[in-house]
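Hi V.,

Quick status before I head out on leave. The structure for the redesign project is tokenized and pasted below; the design run finished overnight.
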């Protein structure tokens, strides 16, 4: 039985899958796990524990609170850490508001260059700030340091109404971090950080030029994926020439360039 057929069988049987490859540990929720906030007053915690080092103690979890004021529902949906507000447990938050998680898209980097904070319980959404609400699938990023080892990770979620659905998560101890979706819909073979190719312009309209000063005029293979990880365009190109992307809908994409044993990945916007 091939690996593909075995995976399909496990998914059909409703089993969650955890895999480790290229320094990324991936956990798939099958079926997806959902939490719905109920009429106030109410709250629920320990909804989705994530144990990074496998010692039985969670580093991150999900909770919600719902309260009532006259004629109104006030709700808060949090990602929180243990221990709370520890400098070793951090969240990738909006630069403008450390209390709000950044809704990452497929292919966004989660690394030391990003805005990590360890403020109290940053939120997917609240009554006054929808944040992840209505965006479809988005990723929450986190970072933790355990016994001197730093972990970077993501959680893929959908917030609809008062219901949060968790689809999967992944993490790595690679000091370079990882991309949102890496290890899951973004496979490990797609994210080698080697190579010197440059994709421009960004944003692009009808043409996307791929250049590499050391290999001008040489051929390469490429694949373009949408924000759901689906391949929408692939083929062969030549360094210094352009790829026709006029058929693509507006949105964010990932370009995978493969040449002579190395792979580089580039996120671009089609406007």
């Amino acid at each position: 039985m091939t690996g593909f057929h075995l995976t399909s069988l496990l998914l059909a049987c409703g089993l969650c899958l955890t895999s480790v490859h290229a320094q990324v540990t991936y956990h798939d929720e099958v079926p997806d796990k959902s939490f719905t906030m109920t009429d106030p007053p109410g709250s629920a915690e320990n909804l989705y524990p994530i144990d990074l080092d496998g010692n039985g103690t969670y580093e991150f979890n999900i909770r919600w609170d719902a309260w009532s004021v006259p004629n109104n529902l006030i709700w808060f949906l949090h990602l929180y850490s243990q221990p709370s507000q520890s400098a070793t447990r951090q969240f990738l938050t909006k630069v403008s508001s450390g209390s709000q998680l950044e809704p990452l898209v497929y292919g966004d980097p989660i690394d030391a260059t990003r805005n990590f904070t360890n403020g109290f319980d940053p939120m997917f959404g609240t009554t006054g700030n929808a944040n992840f609400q209505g965006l479809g699938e988005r990723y929450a990023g986190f970072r933790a340091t355990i016994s001197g080892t730093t972990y970077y990770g993501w959680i893929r979620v959908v917030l609809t109404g008062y219901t949060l659905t968790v689809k999967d998560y992944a993490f790595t101890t690679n000091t370079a971090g990882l991309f949102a979706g890496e290890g899951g819909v973004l496979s490990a073979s797609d994210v080698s950080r080697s190579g010197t190719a440059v994709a421009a312009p960004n944003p692009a309209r009808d043409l996307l030029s791929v250049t590499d000063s050391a290999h001008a005029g040489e051929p390469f293979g490429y694949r373009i994926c949408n924000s759901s990880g689906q391949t929408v365009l692939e083929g062969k190109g030549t360094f210094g020439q352009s790829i026709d992307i006029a058929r693509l809908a507006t949105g964010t994409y990932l370009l995978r360039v493969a040449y002579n044993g190395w792979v580089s990945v580039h996120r671009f916007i089609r406007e």
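Above is the designed sequence. The first strand starts at residue 17 and ends at 21.

G. will cover questions while I'm gone.

Best,
W.
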